[in-house]
Specification:
alpha/beta; hydrolase; Cytidine_deaminase-like; about 15% strand; binds zinc ion; CMP/dCMP-type deaminase domain-containing protein; metal ion binding; 3-stranded parallel β-sheet; Cytidine Deaminase, domain 2; elongated; about 25% helix
Length: about 90
């Protein structure tokens, strides 16, 4: 897994970052920040925490955040008929 790059829509949560580090994934590229559960910087940075005795997980927000959120919303709309209608959060200024 050392040469693996994971490409995802949403910043991984704390637990996913920990699991990816355990699997020794090299890097994660994501679209939108996860302000509620993000484990790379939004809530708490687990990806480079030196207390964890495993290789650092390099995480970068390189993808278009709006497109990533749209893709994620379409996914949930297709898989869950009870899903709430999408709405946009207002960006903090
Ligand atoms: Zn997760």
């Amino acid at each position: 897994m050392a040469d693996t790059t994971v490409l995802i829509t949403l910043e991984p949560c704390l637990m996913c970052v920990r699991a990816l580090r355990h699997l020794r994934v090299r890097q994660v590229l994501f679209g939108a920040r996860n302000e509620r559960f993000g484990g790379t910087d939004s809530v708490y940075n687990v990806s480079a925490n030196e207390l964890i005795d495993e290789p650092v997980l390099h995480c970068h927000q390189l993808l278009d955040a709006d497109k990533a959120v749209d893709l994620l919303q379409r996914f949930y709309q297709q898989t869950n008929d009870s899903a709430p209608k999408p709405h946009r959060k207002r960006l903090k200024t």
